Amino acid sequence: MGNTSSMLTQYDIEEVQEHCSNTFSQQEIVSLYQRFCQLDRNGCGFISAEEFMTVPEFAVNPLSQRLFRMLDGLNFKEFVAFLSAFSSRASLQQKVEFIFKVYDTDGNGKVTFNEMLDILRDLTEFSDLHLFLVIEVMQKENTPMSLKIENLHKRIA
Amino acid sequence: MGKLNTSSSELDFDRPNIEDYLPSGSIQEPHGKLRLRDLLDISPTLTEAAGAIVDDSFTRCFKSNPPEPWNWNIYLFPLWCLGVVVRYGLLFPLRVIVLTIGWIIFLSCYFPVHFLLKGHDKLRKRLERGLVELICSFFVASWTGVVKYHGPRPCMRPKQVFVANHTSMIDFIVLEQMTAFAVIMQKHPGALFLESLGCIWFNRSESKDREIVAKKLREHVHGADNNPLLIFPEGTCVNNHYTVMFKKGAFELGCTVCPIAIKYNKIFVDAFWNSRKQSFTTHLLQLMTSWAVVCDVWYLEPQNLKPGETPIEFAERVRDIISVRAGLRKVPWDGYLKYSRPSPKHRERKQQSFAESILRRLEEK
User: Fold this and answer.
1) Are B227 and B198 in contact (CB under 8 A)?
2) CB within 10 Å: which end of chain B, N or C, has fewer?
3) Residue A70's closest CA among A39, A90, A98, A50?
4) Which among A34, A40, A29, A44 is positioned nearest to A6, based on CA atoms?
5) Best CA proximity match to A116, nearest among A100, A136, A98, A95
6) Cβ–Cβ < 8 Å for B297, B149
């Protein structure tokens, strides 16, 4: 890919576009590359967690720690693939898959009740008492103890 | 870049609300009964995070935007080459000569005045002030600075402090040419002549330093004989399209604040000193080999703390005045975030507001 060069060739752009299933136009990929180079200060080809934290808007986001885990050590191609879920051209399926990946911290294809509670804790810093209240709400809607991705789709859509 | 550590001393809790500045409509206030899908749907927060990754208002403040090249066709290119020859071959040597003459005059007058007139303080100070103004005029001439000053010139009165937006070290020189200010700046070697103006040093990395510096500021301002004090409340160089948050130190000294707005015209050269990209010497050389440095300086109406206004609100109000005058956009970030991470208080506040909305809806059964 040419980590040291700051110019993308047409071939590179097409490769990245294919990798992210055409969710970004070529112009968007060029802009993303400029942004990637801007964030990757030491020019080593990937953005480290420290470099992400220099963006204060990202650092104050409650889910930033989770996203780190998914973002750490990504090269440009993977970076674009990561962001593809946010493109306006992304399908609902892609978006739900992304959300599922954020929930599923141990990557076993299932989101357990504990993982859902973890997310809630990240978003709100709830004490245990408040979490019990939430459990009450969830039980009223008969939450299965673990969700697979098709169920998540149904729940959110 | 060294390890970032969380800044605790610089960010105060009672800051203006960042949510006011973020794009509205990014999080809609949900109503109605709390349902499972509301807890599971993290897409607003994720969208915010992705938005920050792709473009954020803080990094934009420090981006130097290179000017569009205009020499791209067969008629303009030779003209541009001629321009390069004139700038580097003719103007640059001339400017170096002018600057050298200026330094010679300054040094040969300064030392005698400083030592021989030890007893006559008032006269000595007046002469030293005049000499500093002179050397700054030489500096400005060495970049062919075309500076237009608008508004009444600052006068020497006690209990007043001047604040200005900050783009480069040359801000200080441009302002100093007109009035010999005393300035507060980051400690660095090679600025000993400023001692005579009564300059105050601080060290960004020491947190205890703040109280000492605040005390020194207060003493300086209340002394009748001292030079007017100039402060750059942004604390760092910004690219002259945006203003970052002003530090409240200058606004809680209990005196009048006189805002100064500086706007550089990028027509010949970009005066923004991107300290990450270039050293000060490279920056200075870039200025000296361009046609001219054009800028406008507005001395604005002095402001006082309104009854019931906190220093932070006062700082924001003055930032508003300066930004409007110089055509700059405001950004809700602390300039020191260049060197440290945001304090966890911001994240906690976001979490708190989300938690409150959930609890509120839980009660709406």
Assistant:
1) yes
2) C
3) A98
4) A34
5) A100
6) yes
Q: Is B348 on the interface with A (CB under 8 A)?
A: yes
Q: What is the pLDDT of residues B204-254, one digit of tens each?
A: 666 677 777 778 888 887 776 778 888 898 888 888 899 999 988 888 888
Provide the whole-model pTM. 0.77
Is the Cβ of A156 closer than 8 Å to some Cβ of chain B?
A: yes
| Residue whose C-alpha is closest to residue B277's, from A148, A37, A154, A78 | A37
Angle between helix B92-116 and B280-288 (nearest 10): 120
- Could you report the per-residue pLDDT of A85-113, keeping only the tens digit for each? 888 888 888 888 888 888 888 878 887 87
Q: What does the pLDDT look like over A41-96, one tens digit per residue?
A: 887 888 888 888 888 888 888 888 888 888 887 888 888 888 888 888 888 888 88
Among partner residues A64, A125, A130, which is closest to B49 by beta-carbon distance? Answer: A64
Q: Calculate the CA dihedral of residues B27, B29, B32, B36 and round it to 10 degrees.
A: 30
Closest C-alpha among A113, A94, A110, A121 to residue A151? A110
Determine the Cα–Cα distance for residues A66 and B12; give it in Å rounded to an integer. 27
Contact (CB<8Å) A133/B4: no
CB of A37 within 8 Å of a chain B CB? The answer is: no
Complex prediction ipTM: 0.81
